[in-house]
Amino acid sequence: MPSNPNRKAAIGILAALSVAIVLYSLLVVQQILLGLLVAVVPWFLYLLVRFVFTLERIATALERLARDRGAETDGGVEDE
Hints:
Strand content: under 5%
Helix content: over 70%
Distance between the termini: 46 Å
């Protein structure tokens, strides 16, 4: 499966933003837990969206497979 350049750019931006948030929380606010919490939430949401899209692709592929197998069995059986 070819990689999408927009997806790579989004991941890069999200990674840079997460690092900036963690560094800010560590150096300026001096509360690492707050920075980790704020940096982890966008990654969790990103992974949740990817998971839903992957489940959708799996369901579509299974529907297509069932339809194709149903067409094979219906076309091969003759009524007597």
